[in-house]
Design brief:
52% of the residues lie in helices and 7% in strands. By secondary structure, the protein is mainly alpha-helical. The chain contains 14 helices and 5 strands. The relative contact order is 0.15. The mean pLDDT is 94. Bound molecules: adenosine-5'-triphosphate and L-tryptophanamide.
């Protein structure tokens, strides 16, 4: 079923750097299972990327396996797509080095994630944090994908990947396919429940709903969600109502309804009804994922089988691209 030469290809990854949250799910992850019939899909756990920030080794191992279980629990059937751990496929690091030499200091300096993360980790602004987008470009280009499904915040990284691919192709001919970012319309930027002007992020846990969180904790976070102080208190999207607009977005994404339908459903009702309704919709969306993740985590042998087979299938494709690149730049064949 894979690598049949006709199907379009898709690749994406998430860092096992913390607990998966509602933004990760409603933004990119929810859409991945919808694509596995149409595309040849490669989904990986971006563990190499996580060490740009200091990690506890035992925790990292645990979270990597938990994220794999969550991928599967969200509907990524390992029989229908390739699931693997980034560090298990050395071609990622190997192509990363080559692409480092085709990426400019100036363009990396403009990356907003680098600016943000170096401000947050002022005592550890390491070279990996700086060259992170180049490794990400290697992750992508190895699989010659048509599309890269990510959240809005990763768009700039897919764009630099396209620039690097075009630069390389400009010198050596058509080595890489130049992929498009694929960003969902609903849910691409879920905002924090406690500070709706910043994106939901694990670094602000009070405004962040985690996939494995208990239903009562999720309900509590939604009931406390920051809304707006307009006297009408009506459920309608508006730029001056970021809190309510975000809740409408979450409810629409969780239930599959349009924004207009959500507004109509709660017309004439205040926030007191709306906030718990959003909480319940989220709890019900996440419940089967949480239960299936727990079941899968009890079967380590199965998960090991999945990532071993995934690494083999990914490496087969990745090494083919790497060999082509090595040949083009003039490395002596082994
Ligand atoms: P942090 O919480 O530290 O900001 P993160 O949650 O963004 O990190 P990543 O591994 O960088 O973690 O993100 C995984 C995927 O989830 C990416 O495709 C990213 O675009 C998407 N994503 C992250 N946060 C959100 C959000 N609030 N809304 C929608 N998509 C998001
Ligand atoms: N940078 C991404 C994770 C990531 C990725 C990738 C996503 C690493 N390599 C390749 C898509 C394709 C992030 O922080 N969310």
């Amino acid at each position: 079923m894979m690598e049949n030469g006709n199907k379009k290809v898709m690749v994406s990854g998430i860092q096992p750097s913390g607990e998966l949250h509602l933004g990760n799910y409603l933004g990119p992850l929810r859409h991945w299972p919808e694509m596995i019939d149409e595309f040849d899909c490669y989904f990986f756990l971006a563990d190499l990327h996580t060490i740009t920030v200091r990690q506890n080794p035992a925790e990292l191992r645990k979270r990597t396996l938990a994220l794999l279980a969550q991928y599967i629990a969200c509907g990524l059937d390992p029989e229908k797509c390739v699931l693997f751990v980034q560090s298990h496929v050395p071609a990622h690091s190997q192509l990363g080095w080559v692409l480092d030499c085709y990426t400019m200091f100036g363009e990396l300096s403009r990356m907003t994630q680098f600016k943000d993360k170096s401000a947050k980790n002022a005592d550890n602004i390491n070279a990996g944090l700086f060259t992170y987008p180049v490794l990400m470009a290697a992750d992508i280009l190895l699989y010659q994908p048509d599309a890269v499904p990510v959240g809005e915040d990763q768009k700039q990284h897919v764009e630099i990947c396209r620039d690097i691919a075009n630069r390389f192709n400009g010198v050596y001919g058509d080595v890489f396919k130049v992929p498009e970012p694929y960003i969902a319309k609903v849910g691409a930027r879920i905002m924090s429940l406690s500070a709706p002007d910043s994106k939901m992020s694990k670094s602000q846990p009070e405004g962040c709903v985690f996939l494995m969180e208990k239903p009562e904790d999720i309900m509590r976070k939604f009931k406390r969600a920051v809304t707006d102080s307009d006297t009408e208190r009506c459920v309608r999207r508006a730029p001056e109502k970021p809190g309510v607009s975000n809740l409408i977005q979450i409810y629409a994404a969780a239930t599959g309804k349009s924004y207009e339908d959500v507004e109509a459903e709660f017309e004439g009702q205040g926030y007191g009804k709306f906030k718990p309704a959003v909480g319940e919709a989220v709890v019900e969306t996440l419940r089967p994922i949480r239960e299936e993740t727990e079941r899968l985590l009890a079967d380590k042998a199965y998960l090991e089988g999945v990532y071993r087979a995934g690494a083999e299938r990914a490496a087969y494709v990745a090494e083919k691209t790497l060999r082509k690149v090595y040949k083009k730049v003039g490395f002596l064949p082994r």
